[in-house]
Amino acid sequence: MAENRASEYTEGTPCWVDAQLPDLEAGKRFYGELFGWTFEDQPTGTVRASKDGDPVASLARKTDGRLPTVWTVSFFTPDADALCARIRAAGGQVVAPPAPFGDLGRTALVTDPEGAVFSLWQPGATAGFGRRHEPGAFAWVQLYTRDTDTANAFYGDLFHDALFGEGADPDFGRAPVSEVFAPEMPPHLLVHFAVRELEPALERVTRLGGRTQVPPFDTSYGTAAVVTDNQGASFALLRR
């Protein structure tokens, strides 16, 4: 079922994901075969990925080779400027201040106090995901942090209603980096995509030129595995 209306989202709800890749055509081949996505070039210079006709993600070409090859999650906000001010006051940083993204909305790039990077999305013509919580679409984002107390305080205040409000059903969790990764791994937000079965999906990742970074492990929100695509961008596969 499509979920693409602004009213679907509370501030702090994950509403979009995008990948910064050096080779868009290679990205389209990889994710098209892995998730059954189709693609459409956008006036903004990005490529929109759709599942069964509904938007689920976007791919963008890296403009600077020094930038990471990475998936980034965007959290919904009705007021990006006000949220950026609150992020600064809470010890985070604004890397790129709110700016128009065509007529689709306004976006900003920010970090939490430990440096984990995420985006904000203030919708214009586009509210966010057309599909989520189903195979081939966004399912969860997990923050891996060195200081869970600081992270819980920061995000708990910033996105209180989405995480703890009445009827909240958050798609966002927090855990120590060392729970899954080597202790030296920097704090980061890991995007999860749903799959029906993990093993066939992991085999497809390998066949398409990616690799398994962390084999399947159980979590409170399902069984996950961390992989990289054929250009090195990390993400997780999730079976619930």
From TrEMBL:
InterPro entries: Anthracycline_SecMetBiosynth, Glyas_Bleomycin-R_OHBP_Dase, Glyas_Fos-R_dOase_dom, VOC_core. The keyword Ligase does not apply. GO terms for molecular function: hydrolase activity. SUPFAM superfamilies: Glyoxalase/Bleomycin resistance protein/Dihydroxybiphenyl dioxygenase. It comes from the Bacteria. Residues 13-123 form the VOC domain. The keyword DNA damage does not apply. Keywords: Hydrolase. Pfam families: Glyoxalase. This is Hydrolase. It comes from Streptomyces gancidicus BKS 13-15. The lineage of its organism: Bacteria, Bacillati, Actinomycetota, Actinomycetes, Kitasatosporales.
